[in-house]
């Protein structure tokens, strides 16, 4: 049996192009640093509109993959700076919510999902809405929802 004191808390952050993602990332990194944990990053390349020609679709996917890899390198550098450790990086294709749930099911080390709520009038964001709504029964880890409008200083005081 594994000694619970040997387990490392893994904070999973979904990487996308929203402003609030940076709030979730900073919060997860600070929590990981203060608790001896680690950060994991997930970026999902969602399917583009169907293309009538296979070659065009393959080119679009290759371009999306290259952009995703560049984004993940940038985010990984930020994680190292804030948490002091290299992150675990996951890059997947498909529907974001379903790929997130699949990853959490497949990776037993993931212990907390960290998301930041949207700051606009549209609500907390589609992913949060899905996860606390119809998909909540599939989660095996708690979700930490951080207010998306927090400043770096406020996050540092919380984490």
Tell me about this structure.
This protein has 159 residues and is α/β, with parallel strands linked by helices. The chain contains five helices and five strands, in the order E-H-E-H-E-H-E-H-E-H. The chain has a single domain, classed as Rossmann fold. Helix 1 crosses helix 2 and helix 1 runs parallel beside helix 5. The longest helix is centred in the middle third of the chain and has 30 residues.
Number of strands: 5
Compressed to H and E, one letter per element, the order equals EHEHEHEHEH
Mean pLDDT: 90
Q: What topology, given as strand order, has the largest sheet?
A: 3-2-1-4-5
The top-level CATH class is: Alpha Beta
Report the uncertain regions.
Answer: none
Q: What is the name of the CATH superfamily? A: HUPs
Total of helices: 5
Q: What fraction of the residues are assigned to beta strands by DSSP? A: 15-25%
Radius of gyration equals 16 Å
CATH topology: Rossmann fold
Class based on secondary structure composition and strand pairing: alpha/beta
CATH architectural grouping? 3-Layer(aba) Sandwich
How would you describe the shape? globular
How many strands, which pairing sense, and closed or not: the largest β-sheet? 5 strands, parallel
How far apart, in Å, are the first and last alpha carbons? Answer: 30 Å
How much helicity do the residues have?
Answer: 40-55%
Q: Domains counted in the coordinates: how many?
A: 1
């Amino acid at each position: 049996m594994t000694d619970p004191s040997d387990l490392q808390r893994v904070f999973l952050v979904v990487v996308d192009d929203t402003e609030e993602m940076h709030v979730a990332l900073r919060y997860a990194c600070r929590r990981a640093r203060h608790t001896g944990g680690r950060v994991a990053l997930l970026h999902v390349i969602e399917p583009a509109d169907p293309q009538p020609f296979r070659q065009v679709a393959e080119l679009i996917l290759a371009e999306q993959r290259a952009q995703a890899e560049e984004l993940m390198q940038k985010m990984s550098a930020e994680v190292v700076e804030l948490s002091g450790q290299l992150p675990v990086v996951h890059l997947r294709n498909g529907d974001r919510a379903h790929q997130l749930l699949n990853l959490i099911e497949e990776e037993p080390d993931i212990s907390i999902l960290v998301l930041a709520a949207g700051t606009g009038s549209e609500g907390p964001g589609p992913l949060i809405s899905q996860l606390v709504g119809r998909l909540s029964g599939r989660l095996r880890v708690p979700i930490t929802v951080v207010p998306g409008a927090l400043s770096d200083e406020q996050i540092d005081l919380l984490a």
